[in-house]
Write a structure and sequence with these properties.
It comes from Anoxybacterium hadale. The protein is mostly helical. The chain is built from six helices and two strands; from the N terminus they run E-H-H-E-H-H-H-H. The protein has helices at residues 7-29, 42-64, 75-78, 81-106, 108-122, 128-148; strands at 2-5, 69-72. Strands 1-2 form a two-stranded antiparallel sheet. The mean pLDDT is 90.
């Protein structure tokens, strides 16, 4: 199977759409009663605006300058070292997406402990103290923010 793609066009268009969606979500997610020019929405708008501008530039670069790459997918491609690296990156991203879902359902403490364990298992940590130290740190962070500073955590 042959695929022709341009990574600049793909990346630029995905992040441009993400920037537009985030830009439109700012007023509903960040409420502000201030009438001044600089308020709580200013920094997120600057960051997301910059993301949109650079995504658009990347999209233009892909359209006008970068040639399309041709990828041939075969069984040997799926077992290659490069594909295995990409697959590890996808699995790592999936772990973080699962963490975001778990964060809303079970809260900070349990989901962060599960994230810590999942990452350590993913990297093949075998010693017990590799697990004990990060889990203890999660507990310490939770205690400091929740109990001492009284910051509400999800």
């Amino acid at each position: 199977m042959k695929l022709k793609y341009n990574s600049e066009i793909m990346s630029g268009s995905v992040f441009l759409v993400a920037a537009v969606v985030l830009w439109l979500l700012i007023p509903s997610q960040i409420d502000t009663m201030e009438t001044s020019a600089i308020n709580a929405q200013t920094v997120p708008k600057i960051v997301i605006g910059g993301m949109g501008i650079f995504s658009f530039c990347l999209l233009l670069q892909g359209i006008f300058t970068a040639p399309k790459k041709e990828v041939v997918i075969t069984r040997t491609t799926l077992s290659s070292e490069h594909f295995q690296k990409e697959l590890k990156s996808i699995i790592y991203a999936a772990i973080f997406l699962a963490y975001l879902v778990a964060l809303t359902w079970v809260g900070f403490l349990i989901s962060t402990m599960l994230l810590t364990i999942a990452i350590l298992v993913f990297y093949g940590a075998r010693r017990w103290y590799y697990y004990a130290i990060p889990l203890a740190m999660v507990g310490v962070v939770y205690f400091i923010f929740k109990m001492l500073l009284r910051v509400s955590l999800p």
